[in-house]
Amino acid sequence: MNRLSKRAIRILTSDLRKLVPMRRVPDQRPPALSPDTMVHVGEKKTESVNLHVADYGPDGLRELTTTSVEECVAFETKETPTWIQVVGLHDVNKIGTLLQSYGIHPLVQADVVNTKQMPKVDSFDDYLFVVMRLLAPDSDGHGVIVENFSLLLIDKVLITFQESPTMLFDPVFARLRNEHSRSRQNGCDYLMWALLDAVVDNYFVVLDTIEGEVERFDALVLEQTHSMDPGPIHTLKQQVFHLHRLIRPAREVAAALARGDSGLIRDATLIYLRDLYDHVIHAIEITENLRESAASLRDFYLAAVSNRMNEVMKVLTCFATIFLPLTFLAGIYGMNFQHMPELGVRWAYPALWGVFVVLTVVMLWIFRRKRWL
C-alpha cells in the first residue's frame, strides 16, 4: 500500500471516531432508588448550569442570560411566548427548582437529568415532554457531539434541556431576532418544531459525512485489496450501526407529535410536524442504506481477499503441476542402479532436457488455453 493510501485510511478512521464516540458512560443510577428521585446520569459537560431566556412576540424580543432560576422565572411574561434554554444538567437542585415552579411531575424531572433516557413523547394535561438524540458539531467543528436533548412545552413556555453549549440552534435564535420571521409571529409549539427540525437536519449532515467515508473506503478496497488493513472497515461498520441505533427511535417521537394528540399543539403547526416526520423517515432510510453498504463493503473486502488468494493458489498449483512430471523423471534417473541402459547413451542427458522443455511448453500452452494462467 502506498503512503497516500495509508494516510487516507488513518484520516478516515480518526474522523470516524470523532464523529460517533463509542465510549459509553455507565449508568450511575442506583437500582433500588425511587424512579421519581432526581439523579444526574452521564458526564458533567459544563461548569455551571446556564439559563438563556427569550421572551418574544410580534412586538419585540427580550433576552436574558443568567444562572439564577429566580431571575429566569421573574423574567417570563404571561402574555407572550417564552423560551428557556437550559445548558448543563448536572445541578439537579437548580433544575429541580425550575421544574417545580411549573408543576412538572417528579418522574419527568428525573427523566430530564437522565442523559441515558431513550427518545420518547409523554403527553400530560398541562404540558408535553419530548426527548430526542442530538448530533451536533463540537466547538472546533471537527467532530460530533452525541447527547440527549429534551424539551417541555407548557402553553406559552418552552423549556429546552441540553448537556453542553452548541451552535446547532443559532439559526433558530437568528429567526427569533428577525421581527418579520414566522417564529416571532407564532407560539411555542411552532418554536418546538423549529428546534426539533434543527436536530433532524443535523442528522443529514452527519449521514452525508459517513456516506462519503463509505464511498472512499469502497474505492480504497478496489485499489488496495492485497495490502489494506481490514480494521478501519470494521470500525466504519460499527459507526454506521451505532448511528442507526441513535436515529431510529426518532421515528416514534415524530409520529407521536404528527398525530396531534396534545391540545398544546395547534392545527397550523401539525403540517410542520408531519413534514418533520417525513424527514425522520428519510434519515432512517439513509441509515439503513448505509448499513447495507457498510456490511457489503466488508463482505466485498473478504471476497476480494479470498479471490486474490485463489488466484495465488491457482498460479502456485500450475507451477507445481508443471514440475510434477519433471520431478518424476528426474527421480527415476537419479536412482543409484548399476543397470540403466539410458545412462550409457551419449545423448541421453540432452535428450532428457529436451523432454523437460517440451513438457513445460505443452503444459503452459494447455494452461493458457484454459485461461488458468
What tags apply to this protein structure?
373 residues; disordered N terminus; single chain; Methane Monooxygenase Hydroxylase, Chain G, domain 1; alpha+beta; 11 helices; Beta Polymerase, domain 2; seven-stranded mixed sheet; 7 strands
Question: How would you explain this protein's 3D organization?
Answer:
By secondary structure, the chain is of the alpha+beta class. The protein folds into 2 domains: 3-302, Beta Polymerase, domain 2 (2-Layer Sandwich); 312-369, Up-down Bundle (Methane Monooxygenase Hydroxylase, Chain G, domain 1). 54% of the residues lie in helices and 14% in strands. The protein is built from 11 helices and 7 strands. It has helices at 3-19, 69-75, 92-100, 106-112, 170-176, 182-185, 188-223, 231-247, 250-259, 267-333, 348-369, and strands at 50-57, 60-66, 82-87, 120-123, 128-137, 144-154, 157-162. A 7-stranded mixed beta sheet has the order 2-1-3-7-6-5-4, sandwiched between helices. Helix 1 (3-19) packs antiparallel against helix 7 (188-223). The protein is rod-shaped, with a radius of gyration of 34 Å. The model is unreliable at 1-14 and 20-26 (pLDDT under 50).
